[in-house]
Amino acid sequence: MKVLVTGGAGYIGSHTSLCLLEQGHEVVVFDNLLNSSEESLKRVEELTHRPVQFIKGDLLDASALERIFAENAFEAVIHFAGLKAVGDSVEEPLWYYRNNVVGTLNLLDCMAKAGVKKLVFSSSATVYGASELVPLVEQSPVRAVNPYGRTKEQIEDILSDLVAADTDWSVAILRYFNPVGAHESGRIGEDPRGVPNNLLPFVAQVAAGRRDKVRVFGNDYGTPDGTGVRDYIHVMDLAAGHIAALKFIQSHLGAYCWNLGTGRGSSVLEVIAAFSASAGRDIPYEFAPRRKGDAAISYADASAALADLGWTAHRDLAQMCEDHWRWQSANPLGYQPMPDLTDGDDHQ
Ligand code: UD1
Predict the structure, then answer these.
(1) How do residues 120-144 score in pLDDT, each as one tens digit?
(2) Mean per-residue pLDDT, 161-188
(3) Catalytic: 148?
(4) Which of 20, 168, 208, 215 has CB atoms 3.0–4.6 Å from 288's, for a disulfide?
(5) Reduced to 3 states, what is the DSSP secondary structure of residue 43?
(6) Residue bearing the CA closest to ligand 1, atom 29
(7) Does residue 317 fall inside a structural domain?
């Protein structure tokens, strides 16, 4: 299949593109590189020995998108492109709604015009808001608590309205829990810009000596050790979930929604301990006040994905930390090249 991957240079997009290529699919990546790097795709090519066609562009540029659909016979689209920082979305809601919602509308318009009606959409467990009725099932109430989450929720609604109006569409909505880890080669991984918002990349940067200590947001939750519990899932398991969903929509019309998680929760302190064991070094931390909007506990019931797609996560927390650390330690600055220390004027 020839697949368009929007946001394919990003963290989950690059790992999924790698899996698509390994499955023999042809991949065209469309990405504005706002929060990603083309270097990830060079490394995907090097790992798979297969070419990736990269087009730098923005979903808000409808005419560029139209051209791409006119020039390529896609069979399906996997749509990752979007902004994802909760704090930014609270400060700049219009930017978030325009990028995520209007960008998706542009994409859907082009797909409809070109008659490409198979879509895998990157949603998030964030649509469940701060619900603590765990495990979360796909039927759990959807009530996002910030603009970022609401963009995901609105896009899900748009997709189900679209499928109701035109039954030729096949749409898979994937609600990710907490993606972490990296490809086992250590060549591709997560490369957040600036200070990481999420736990794992922060812990990894503390382990690498790039930051002082982890601030644990809250130790008075009603969880076994008082810290927040999440369902961390290895990015390669997540990528495999996309391949399974893509296969499913080839033979099923309609809109489907699946949780992609492991079904197991780990606390912040468990994550720090597991990472410390993988990295073979202490990871300093301190307790800090709760972060606004955080749930105490969130983990998936992932049984629907197993029943419908035959997909389940295989990698445990130790493996997630090992792979994340392999990537972080080999690429301390992410995809940015290391400064060339042999090149200075001060050398004799
Ligand atoms: C966050 C977002 C969610 C988004 C997801 C993936 C919030 C409120 N939620 O989820 O919308 O879909 O990332 O991008 O931002 N923690 C610390 N110290 C840190 C960072 C995190 O203790 O420096 C704790 C948090 O309080 C939480 C756990 O670690 O208990 C996981 O946090 P994080 O990685 O940010 O993920 P979520 O909050 O689940």
Answers:
(1) 999 999 999 988 789 999 999 999 9
(2) 98
(3) yes
(4) 215
(5) helix
(6) 199
(7) yes
- pLDDT band of 348, cuts 50, 70, 90: very low
Strands (E), 190-347: 214-217, 229-230, 232-234, 254-260, 266-267, 285-288
Residue in 11, 97, 128, 148 annotated catalytic: 148
Q: Which domain holds residue 29?
A: 2-330
Estimate the crossing angle of helix 103-114 against helix 147-165, to 10 degrees. 20
* Number of residues in the chain: 348
Residue 339 lies in a domain: no
Helix (H, G, I), strand (E, B) or coil at 222: coil
Report how many domains make up the chain: 1
Token pair in block for residue 261: 């998680």
- Average pLDDT rounded to a whole number, residues 284-308: 96
Do the domain assignments include residue 188? yes
Residue nearest to atom 34 of ligand 1 (CA): 198
Task: Read off the CATH number of the domain in which 58 is found.
Answer: 3.40.50.720
Q: Report residues whose beta carbon is within 6 angstroms of any ligand 1 atom.
A: 84, 86, 124, 126, 148-149, 178, 197-199, 202, 214-217, 228, 230, 268, 291, 293-294
Does the residue 321 lie in any domain? Answer: yes
